[in-house]
């Protein structure tokens, strides 16, 4: 269900494609099964690659014996770290080898790679590799890892190249990947003025990305030129190109990366997956090599969301004015930093919440442990901190005897106010989202009426959400074809969210064309303009911005030609639907794009083509307002807001939680494609329900115990509420394409908190650790003196 909000943006441009649920460009090929993913591809003489994972969470590698594996018929190459350049990679800290070198830091870490004539032979070869280890003491808890007597994972940490500032506190903690401290106001003195104080500890799990398509790469090397061509499931062809170059010492000019159809990513495919090692096998064998992870290998070797522990205290006056907040955050980044320091930075930045709290003290650690590396995952640190923040806001409302929505409205940031660090809130629409959520969910009635079947209790919970949209750099090229159609070229990868369609709609709207007149190209580093990555709720905003800017330049070139062809000044010209430039007020005076293209190509001016580029400008922290350590800027994007509401039914006998209905209200700026936007909201909401109720990677003595879809519980259709309402409000942003804002990550951020708050409303039980499994809910019920029957 979609419900449009007010105010409405300006008129739709010519073309009538904005705001329309046009079919996705890739819909037919996916529905019919004709879509080609990396694992569907073959090349002549292609070999198959496989990786051997460590059996230990922390151990020194004493020796390798690969002779038996190399002797197997059909095995073409066996590689260990000794066969590779000693180059470390990492998004923030260069701390990770392609294959474990010297020691292993988590169970499942790749230690050897094989290429063979088929996958079965490759797997037999892995079993024949003999590696001798010396087990070392391990640490699995981030707070324990910060203790002086904890095992040190990275003895050379301070020698690694790092984008992070080193703080005195980090320097004293060898297992700290990063440390951040943000202080505003007089947080040490204000507590005595707080009339109500709430304090608790909250925990969120390591969540697996569970993209439908496991990581896959096909690499080949040209025998004459040495140029590497890589087909891979990735969120960024350019990041993949850069990481391969860095890991293997190959010039980027000799690496071509192409993204076929991608079956999901959610942040798990932003950096290196198995691409560099597949390239290394292709170079070693002189043949194409394809490596596709099994689901188990993907779960053991790849990435997860950061598990997190948050100590939070919030104080307010009796009338509900929040005065102070103190937060201590511990992100478990696993064996390698990956995106962890940036994730921790986002967590710290959002720890105050979307509220005006004048006195804050936030300390955030990103910590190495002997677990699977953690990385970017939809929401990028924000779902963890929002869980703690929004649950505590409800606890505070309960102590104050105030409605949870009223407390949020009383403290919500508005346009013109400042976020933590002094960053301006340019479009403060949280209040609009809260009020709309109260209306569409029938909050007041449901809050007061909890009728439920015998043995069950019903409740409703809410979470306010603040996130960002934009982030880093993009570019695009738009070219007029000879027949008047247009080719749009960007490096953005559509990973299943429908960005190709939305960006094509932006181009069509800007030039007055139909979707059939737009040719949208696939990402290829040999020909696509640069785009940083599909992630961070940025593609529609950032790439859409450069696409529309390039279209504006094309329009200007069209008008220059048409002015001479029609004998009228440019100011009197207009675009008309279907690829026509006409004279305002004169229906018969016009010229087609095709005619203009012919004139430009063969008579005057040259091809009509334009490029645009943009980088979101980093915003430095206002040091007069905020004392900051470990962060110098907070240039993550423009703020976007949402509100999420969940109604649940809790079985008092078993602790089982059933979600009955959900509402997700988002300020999307302007809706480019309603069906796609609603799909994003609903998909993120369901993924958030998994985070809240069932999804958790579980380790025992360093071993991942549930690396399979039978052991890792993802919600199925029967677990998802039939009534899941996506409510889209439109408050256009001036810097965005047609005012559009991002929605992809925002849709997951507050769900877990809303579920926890609904459980508390239903039963009085406080669930401060998710997922809220039946066992945890039952224990919370018993702690409240309920569920004894």
Automatic annotation (TrEMBL):
Signal peptide from the UniProt entry: none
InterPro entries (alphabetical): Ald_Oxase/Xan_DH_a/b, Ald_Oxase/Xan_DH_a/b_sf, Ald_Oxase/xanthine_DH-like, AldOxase/xan_DH_MoCoBD1, AldOxase/xan_DH_MoCoBD2, AldOxase/xan_DH_Mopterin-bd_sf
Disordered: region residues: 1-23
Xref: SMART domains: Ald_Xan_dh_C (SM01008)
Domain Aldehyde oxidase/xanthine dehydrogenase a/b hammerhead: 32-137
Spans through the membrane: none
Top-level taxonomic group: Bacteria
Name of this chain's protein: Xanthine dehydrogenase family protein molybdopterin-binding subunit
Organism, scientific name: Hyalangium rubrum
């Amino acid at each position: 269900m979609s419900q449009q909000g007010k105010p409405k943006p300006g008129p739709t441009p010519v073309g009538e494609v904005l705001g329309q649920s046009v079919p996705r460009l890739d819909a037919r090929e996916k529905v019919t099964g004709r879509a080609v993913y990396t694992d569907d591809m073959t090349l002549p003489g292609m070999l198959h690659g496989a990786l051997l994972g460590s059996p230990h969470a922390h151990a020194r590698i004493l020796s390798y014996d690969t002779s038996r594996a190399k002797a197997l018929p059909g095995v073409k190459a066996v590689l260990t770290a000794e066969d590779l350049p000693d180059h470390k990679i990492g998004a923030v800290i260069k701390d990770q080898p392609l294959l474990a070198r010297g020691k292993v830091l988590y169970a499942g870490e790749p230690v050897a790679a094989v290429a063979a004539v088929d996958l079965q032979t490759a797997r037999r070869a892995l079993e024949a590799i003999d590696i001798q280890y010396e087990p070392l003491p391990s640490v699995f808890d981030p707070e324990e890892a910060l203790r002086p007597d904890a095992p040190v994972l990275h003895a050379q940490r301070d020698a690694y190249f790092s984008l992070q500032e080193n703080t005195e506190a980090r320097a004293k903690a060898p297992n700290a990947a990063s440390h951040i401290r943000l202080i505003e106001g007089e947080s040490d003195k204000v507590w005595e003025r707080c009339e109500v104080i709430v304090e608790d500890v909250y925990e969120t799990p390591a969540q697996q990305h569970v993209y439908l398509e496991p990581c896959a790469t096909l690499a080949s090397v040209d025998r004459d030129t040495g140029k590497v061509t890589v087909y891979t499931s990735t969120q960024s062809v350019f990041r993949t190109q850069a990481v391969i170059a860095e890991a293997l010492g190959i010039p980027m000019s000799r690496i071509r990366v192409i993204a076929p159809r991608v079956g999901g990513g959610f942040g798990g495919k932003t950096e290196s997956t198995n691409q560099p090692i597949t390239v290394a096998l292709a170079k070693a064998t002189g043949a194409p090599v394809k490596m596709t992870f099994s689901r188990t290998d993907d779960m053991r070797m790849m990435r997860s969301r950061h598990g997190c522990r948050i100590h939070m205290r919030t104080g307010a006056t009796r009338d509900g004015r929040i005065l102070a907040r103190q937060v201590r955050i511990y992100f478990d980044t696993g064996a390698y930093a990956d995106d962890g320091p940036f994730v921790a930075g986002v967590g710290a930045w959002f720890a105050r919440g979307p509220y005006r709290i004048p006195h804050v003290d936030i300390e955030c650690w990103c910590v190495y442990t002997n677990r699977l590396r953690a990385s970017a995952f939809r929401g990028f640190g924000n779902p963890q901190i929002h869980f703690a923040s929004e649950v505590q806001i409800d606890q505070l409302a309960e102590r104050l005897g105030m409605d949870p929505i009223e407390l949020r409205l009383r403290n919500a940031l508005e346009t013109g106010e400042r976020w933590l660090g002094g960053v301006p809130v340019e479009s403060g629409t949280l209040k609009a989202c809260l009020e709309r959520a109260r209306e569409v969910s029938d909050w007041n009635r449901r809050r007061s009426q909890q009728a439920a079947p015998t043995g069950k209790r019903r409740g409703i919970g809410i979470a306010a959400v603040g996130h960002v949209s934009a982030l880093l750099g993009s570019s695009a090229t738009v070219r007029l074809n000879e027949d008047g159609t247009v080719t749009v070229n960007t490096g953005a990868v559509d990973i299943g969210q429908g960005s190709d369609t939305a960006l094509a709609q932006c181009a069509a709207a800007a030039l007055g064309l139909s979707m059939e007149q737009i040719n949208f190209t696939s990402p290829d580093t040999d020909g696509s303009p640069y785009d940083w990555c599909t992630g961070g709720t940025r593609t529609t905003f950032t790439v859409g911005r450069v696409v529309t800017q390039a279209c504006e330049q094309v329009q200007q070139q069209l008008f220059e030609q048409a002015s001479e062809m029609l004998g009228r000044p440019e100011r009197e010209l207009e675009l008309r639907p279907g690829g026509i430039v006409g004279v305002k007020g004169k229906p018969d005076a016009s010229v087609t794009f095709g005619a203009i293209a012919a004139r430009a190509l063969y008579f005057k001016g040259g091809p009509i083509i334009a490029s645009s580029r943009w980088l979101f400008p980093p915003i430095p922290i206002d040091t007069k307002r905020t004392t900051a350590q470990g962060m110098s800027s907070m240039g993550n994007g423009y703020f976007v807001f949402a509100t999420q509401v969940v109604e649940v039914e809790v079985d008092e006998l078993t602790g089982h939680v059933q979600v009955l209905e959900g509402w997700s209200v988002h300020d999307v700026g302007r809706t480019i494609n309603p069906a796609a936007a609603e799909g994003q909201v609903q998909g993120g909401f369901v993924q958030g329900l998994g985070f809240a109720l069932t999804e958790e990677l579980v380790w025992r003595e360093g071993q991942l115990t549930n690396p399979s879809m039978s052991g890792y519980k993802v919600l199925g259709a029967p677990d998802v509420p039939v009534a899941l309402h996506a409510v889209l409000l439109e408050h256009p942003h001036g810097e965005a394409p047609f005012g559009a804002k991002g929605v992809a990550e925002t849709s997951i951020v507050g769900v877990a908190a809303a579920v926890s708050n609904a459980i508390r409303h239903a039963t009085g039980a406080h669930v401060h650790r998710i997922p809220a499994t039946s066992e945890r809910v039952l224990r919370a019920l018993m702690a409240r003196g309920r569920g004894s029957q």
